[in-house]
Amino acid sequence: MRYGYFDDEEREYVITRPDTPLPWINYLGTEAYFGIVSNTAGGFSFYRDARLRRLTRYRYNNAPFDLGGRYLYLRDNDTGDYWSPSWQPTQSELDAYECRHGLSYTQINSRRAGVEARTLYFVPVGETLEVWRLQVTNHRDTPVDLSVFSSVEFCLWEAQDDATNFQRNFSTGQVEVVDGVIYHKTEYRERRDHFAYFACSEPLAGFDTQREAFLGPYRGFDRPAVVASGRSTDSIAHGWAPHGSHQVHAPLAPGETREIVFLLGYWENPRDAKFDPPGSQTINKALVRPVIDRWLRPETVAEGFASLREQWGSLLGGIQVDTPDRDTDRMVNIWNAYQCLVTFNMSRSTSFYESGIGRGMGFRDSNQDLLGFVHMIPERARERILDIAATQLPTGGAYHQYQPLTKRGNNDIGSGFNDDPLWLIVGTGAYLRETGDSSILDEQVPYDNLPGTETPLYEHLQRSLKYTLDRLGPHSLPLIGRADWNDCLNLNCFSETPGEPFQTTENRDGGAAESVFIAGLFVLAAKELANIADYRGLGEEAASYRTNAEKMSGTIMEHGWDGSWFRRAYDFFGAPIGSGENEEGQIFIEPQGMCVLGGVGLEDGTAVRALNSVRERLATEHGIVLQQPPYSSYRVELGEISSYPPGYKENAGIFCHTNPWLMIAEAMAGRGDEAYHYYRLINPSARETISEIHRCEPYVYAQMIAGRDAPTFGEAKNSWLTGTAAWNFVAISQWILGLRPGFDGLLVDPVLPSAWEGFTATRRFRGATYEITVRKPAGVTGRVEQLLVDGAPVAGNQVPLAPAGATVRVEAQIG
């Protein structure tokens, strides 16, 4: 069943009932100020770092799931009836409801008792604030005496401290209310340079800044005492729980519409700003007040919203396609691209499934997120690569994560995930292919952000490769360390005596366990570094990297091939994992994808045998499961993977991130039907009709779908922040549709399903615009046999680079 529909023209998903299976969310902001908003206005806001600069409070694992957010209440003062135009938190019955999730904005529209409310939430481009624009209309034949109440619950800045250190925080909360603006200044006492604010465009009938005064004793946000009584208390918070609420008296004549603007924002004064009197505990508002005044004007809000939509039109214009399949067009042209920008901004740090406290920006994750984003804003991708490289360690190893605000490696999690360094080569290669900007390789970048340790980025890439070569195990395969891509496959945990506590080996070499997956990734990365070296004119270095790749490929075939598929690993004791020798976990998806991506076995048919094994043993109607059979009980020598019940997460769940590797592998093998079949299985738009099973949003990818061994087979979890977004964008746009950036031109190399007769596309590449038409007879599979560029034939499948500003017509015929 469906809970809404796609509005492709407006680039929105329209939710038509508030009781979606899970909160269906959206992200506000594209640069530094961000927010999460659900279809019932739940969520929170933060500036740059969800742990260190949280603005509003959110309680995870709450019931309802998204309780706490950007709430408005409408009250009919004649009857005492009040309700939430977003349905939550009062859950009052509405006569009409819709939530329109757009690109970095959400609008919630509703009607009750003849009163219509339309609330738009967005973050203007270039600002550190969010706008709530409420437009309320009286559709009655008689006047209505209305009051509007706003509500946000401020957070005490450091989210972990806010959730744990009550004895301090209940005594430190401070606010000021000046000219109707509520300033939350709890940390201002110490720093005197930053604060949050909550402002309203209308004269106030009252306000509240103390949560208990707003709610009343033993009452929740579903029935606040202030709203029920129709009268704010003008409370000033002294400790306890600082809160923000405005009351606006808004009588409406029949047919009248009134617009009210609320602003929630963050402000940080320059450290060198001079204010009088020195040391004052009163917030100096000289710099922020003009910003507040400007954005409280309706005309500024309208211009800002138009600018946001215009920005997204430009960002999405990098690639637009018209294929025989509506779900493909919708994801490539709008939603997959949108999700790629969100994952680039957030990595895996902040969603309704990630608190933003325990995880920062992932080294591995962020490099992969670049793959689907780099064509949108290349300069931001460049900055991100340099930020990531600066957290690399002198050994070539890497912190697994870093904090977005400080850009320092996360010591709580540390390093030792031995696949991490190789992803820096993959991410940098994607940037170079898209932009041709080789100057990035000469940028001086420190190690561990330590001054005086700077070397060119190119040397960081060299150390990334050397890190793997310095850590080879008994079979000459790469040591897995704490884990590889699968963080839950912890093969250096073991117990020498059954029943005794497990031990870990975390020495320099990370124990004896080896990873076939890292071996495949190494082949891919070594070949990419060879391409980069060639691009720089370093032919001898390129040859040495290719020699490394060939040697590792041979090692994979000698020690990583199990007869019909690639093995997964060797454990601490030297026993194979992902082998027919095993009773459980006989075949894993990751090496079948990554080894083929590295080109292992493509020439001799080995790769096709592995892909056939995936189809026979791992593919299901909801996607490809991670391994089979699942682990039925906890196995200390395998680690966390066996702690999950069968069919969930890493224990035979459909970990969607890995599915695109098989799509790409099938395309590399020339099997378009298989590649596209896998693409359709997890395409959110294609799954919209089974939303009661899928449960997560039908417009973005989820991290996982419960596998066939799970009681809830087909149910998705952990939506939005997943490498699935970038990899699916790469799989469909670069390999199935075949529009792939190269170092010296744009490759047109589609591997299409046999039923298609072609497609058209527009692709911006290095300043030029390529208008592409691909034709193919139905029922035929094959590769490009003829390529015309502006009417002239071109050998091969690469379109030469055109001057910036040029429009190039490309026609490709598949035979």
Automatic annotation (TrEMBL):
Keywords: Glycosyltransferase, Transferase
Domain Glycosyl hydrolase 94 catalytic: 312-738
Regions annotated as coiled coil: none
GO molecular function: carbohydrate binding; glycosyltransferase activity
One GO biological process term: carbohydrate metabolic process
Stored InterPro entries: 6-hairpin_glycosidase_sf (IPR008928), 6hp_glycosidase-like_sf (IPR012341), Gal_mutarotase_sf_dom (IPR011013), GH65_N (IPR037018), GH94_catalytic (IPR033432), GH94_Enzymes (IPR052047), Glyco_hydrolase_94_b-supersand (IPR010383)
Keyword Glycosyltransferase found: yes
Source organism, top-level taxon: Bacteria
Pfam families: GH94_b-supersand, Glyco_hydro_94
Domain (Glycosyl hydrolase 94 supersandwich): residue spans on this chain: 11-274
UniProt KW Transferase keyword: yes
Annotated protein name in UniProt: Glycosyl transferase
Species name: Natronosporangium hydrolyticum
Lineage: Bacteria, Bacillati, Actinomycetota, Actinomycetes, Micromonosporales
